[in-house]
Amino acid sequence: MAEPIRLKTPLKDEDVERLRIGDRVLISGILYTGRDAAHRRLFDLIKEGKELPFDVRGQIIYYVGPTPAPPGKVFGSAGPTTSYRMDAYSPALIERGLKGMIGKGMRSDAVKEAMRKYKAVYFAATGGAGALLAKRIKRAEIVAYEDLGPEAIQRLEVEDFPVIVINDINGNDLYIEGEKRYKKT
Amino acid sequence: MREIDVRLITEKVKELCIQANTELGEDVLRAFDRAIEKEESPLAIEILKELKENARIAKEERVPICQDTGVAVLFLEIGQEVHLVGGDLKEAIFEGVRKGYREGYLRKSMCHPFTRANTGDNTPAILHTEMVPGDKVKVIVAPKGGGSENMSRVVMLTPSDGIEGMKRYVVQRVKESGSNPCPPTIIGVGIGGNFEQAALLAKKSLLRPLGTRNPDPELDRLESELLEEINRLGIGPQGLGGRTTSLAVHILMMPCHIASLPLAVNIQCHAHRHKEIII
After folding, report:
1. B243 — phi, psi (to 5°)?
2. How many A-B residue pairs are in contact by the CB < 8 A criterion?
3. A164 at the B interface (CB within 8 A)?
4. Minimal Cα–Cα distance from B90 to chain A, Å?
5. A183 and chain B: CB distance < 8 Å anywhere?
6. Between chains, do B65 and A131 touch, taking CB under 8 Å as contact?
7. Which residues 6+ apart lie within 8 Å of A18 measured at CB?
8. Model-level pTM?
9. What is the pLDDT of residue B115?
10. Which of A24, A67, A162 lies at the smallest CB-CB distance from B107?
11. DSSP label at B144?
């Protein structure tokens, strides 16, 4: 298998354009966490024409609801949660300049279309690899919605966070291609 | 009569909650190894190796294998010669879950079905209790995550659907679930009983160690046939394509009503967590 591609945030259009489905990527820099409740709030702010608690342009959101960090550790167990629940909210964020999303599971056609139109990429992290993924998180701080507990928006500093490209800007989907290739009738 | 103080059970439940969430069973790791040998997709092999490495880190650092530390599901077998003292058994077990999820830094994932307000301590736990002969208490803690549970189903088939109908339903369920239950999965199948018993059979079937055969030759054959058919789907680890969509199919079956064919499919993700103790 090919060597993984190293990417640093913030992401530019050129970073996104060169990615192909199945590319293994190691991300360094910043990830913002957010799942169901946080997305609802961000979406409402966009609809109301208000400022978001952080600038999404060039950034990546990681769909995760971690376990509490034990003393001496930066973060708890941190595998991805299933992405389709954020499908209703993602196109608006992508239009605002969000360049990447990390989760697991297939996205809707509307999300894939927004990614193609505004040049954004969807990555999957390995579901259930919570302990391994947590080790790549070097710093974490809450930036918004502390009242949401594990669903608060946190700003993570990560080093070589391993992900795989699921959707590229050419409209390909690794979930569809993978199943097709290994299916035996 | 043998006296057992329920506060001992509280302590053991606490320990089992933490252990189950941080130490993946040897049988699961061996199942990953067998899958790696048979896999055809290089990416799938990478993922399986990652899961093994994740299990190693979790055990070494005492951190949860997966951030979804699940609903606390417990099976209790209480010997008829046992006299439980020191308080209410159910409360003692809930206290053990509370302590385990707090002291183990596990995620609290129980909430009101509609307001979604978190209960704050991962209770209530789900308890399945049986009286058995003898003077021991056996406690099994089997935390169950939401992703795989959401892909599980109970259905009342028509008796004329038969074995082929059962197989079609199980395979179709796995196909429709795709990547959602975090493959590679273990498929628990419960056949017969009644509406709720079929579901319980499906959940219980998951407790049999991976790599062991069903003692009933007919069910053993059905398990192998189903596994082969499922692994032809091509879904693979994490749904990214491959020959290991499921690691095993386990079936438990019992007689049912003459007008019914109850069937339950309880999908278990690769974070196949259960620990037990005999007191």
Report:
1. -100, 0
2. 151
3. yes
4. 26
5. yes
6. yes
7. none
8. 0.94
9. 87
10. A67
11. B
ipTM: 0.91
What domains are defined for chain A? 5-182 (3.20.130.10)
Report d(CA B209, CA B25) in Å as an integer: 9
Residues of chain A with Cβ-Cβ distance to B32 below 8 Å are none
For residue A76, give the nearest of B41, B105, B118 by CB distance: B105
Quick check: B65 and A130 CB within 8 A? yes
Find the CB nearest B64 among A77, A105, A164: A77
Angle at B30 between CA A64 and CA B61, to 5 degrees: 45
The alpha carbon of residue B111 is apart from the nearest alpha carbon of chain A, in Å, by 13
CB contact at 8 A, A127 and A80:
yes
Q: What band does A147 get if pLDDT is binned at 50, 70 and 90?
A: confident
Please tell me what DSSP assigns to residue A35.
-
Distance of CA A6 to the CA centre of its chain: 16
Q: If 0-12 CB within 10 Å is exposed, 13-18 middle and 19+ buried, where does residue B272 land?
A: buried
Residue type, position B256, single letter: C
β-strand A24-33 against A153-167: which pairing, if any? antiparallel
Does B182 contact chain A (CB < 8 Å)? yes
Task: Give the separation between CA A72 and CA B97, rounded to whole angstroms.
Answer: 24
B99 vs B95: CA distance, rounded Å: 6
Sign (positive/negative) of CA torsion A18, A23, A29, A32? Answer: positive
Dihedral angle of Cα B274, B97, B188, A67, to the nearest 10 degrees:
-80
A171 touches chain B (CB under 8 A): no
Nearest-angstrom CA–CA distance, B199 and A167: 37
Q: Tens-digit pLDDT profile for chain B (279 aa)?
A: 999 999 999 999 999 999 999 999 999 999 999 999 999 999 999 999 999 999 999 999 999 999 999 999 999 999 999 999 999 999 999 999 999 999 999 999 999 999 888 899 999 999 999 999 999 999 999 999 999 999 999 999 999 999 999 999 999 999 999 999 999 999 999 999 999 999 999 999 999 999 999 999 999 999 999 999 999 999 999 999 999 999 999 999 999 999 999 999 999 999 999 999 999
The pLDDT of residue B98 is: 98
Q: What is the distance between the alpha carbons of residues B56 and B26, in angstroms, rounded to a whole number?
A: 11
* Interface check A178 vs B, CB under 8 A: yes
Q: How far apart are CA B26 and CA B132, in angstroms?
A: 28
